[in-house]
Amino acid sequence: MHRDIVWEWVDRPGLEHLSLAIGRDEIVAESLVVVALDGAPVRLRYRLRCDGEWTFRDAALTLDDAEGTRSVRLERDAGGAWRVDGMERGDLAGCIDIDIRATPFTNTLPIRRQAMAAGAPTRLRMAYIDVPGLAVSALDQEYTRLDPAAPPRRFRYRNLLTPFEAELAVDEDGVVVDYPPVWRRRGGGSPASPRADRAC
């Protein structure tokens, strides 16, 4: 199944166009983000690949801004070892998913992969990619499923290092529809794709 999704930034000028291919054995997301950060325009392209169970495998990001072009590549092998630009990163041990600062899409990975019980907070460690710097670090986050329906449509997200939290509305594929006060979807339908019961 293929989907094209557009998000608008609510708190600043910006758009993202995501092309998402959901297959039985592989999921590939390719996206372009154009946004003003700290008053300066930034263009970010990323390609992210998961296996058919929504477990992260690798990602490549390229960013253009007033300082030039820079890029970063992340890989996680089947044993859980991480590499960033080919270098082993033991500090990312325990991370399963990635979180790219400039997109709501990476919230979909834990939502689809984790079997979250309604009302029970789930603590996760993410390989967090800052934008525009593209620095990679481990970050603890928390998701709480708010909706007992299957598939669920509402989650609470918390950054455990800051006071930030948000209530996310998602579609039946677990893709963000509304993420106040940062993003809202402006284009792209929500066709259902097969979902494993464990991901609900």
What is the element layout, followed by pairings?
Blueprint: E1 2-9, E2 14-22, E3 26-37, E4 40-51, E5 56-65, E6 68-76, E7 82-84, E8 87-88, E9 97-100, H1 108-113, E10 122-129, E11 136-145, E12 154-159, E13 165-170, E14 176-179, E15 183-187
Parallel strand pairs: 9-10
Antiparallel strand pairs: 1-2, 1-15, 2-3, 3-4, 4-5, 5-6, 6-7, 7-8, 10-11, 11-12, 12-13, 13-14, 14-15
How would you describe this structure to a colleague?
The chain has one domain (2-185). The two termini are 19 Å apart. The protein has one helix at 108-113; strands at 2-9, 14-22, 26-37, 40-51, 56-65, 68-76, 82-84, 87-88, 97-100, 122-129, 136-145, 154-159, 165-170, 176-179, 183-187. A hairpin with a 3-residue loop joins strand 2 and strand 3. The model is unreliable at 192-200 (pLDDT under 50). The protein has a 15-stranded mixed β-sheet with strand order 8-7-6-5-4-3-2-1-15-14-13-12-11-10-9. With 200 residues, the protein is an all-beta fold. The chain has 1 helix and 15 strands; from the N terminus they run E-E-E-E-E-E-E-E-E-H-E-E-E-E-E-E.
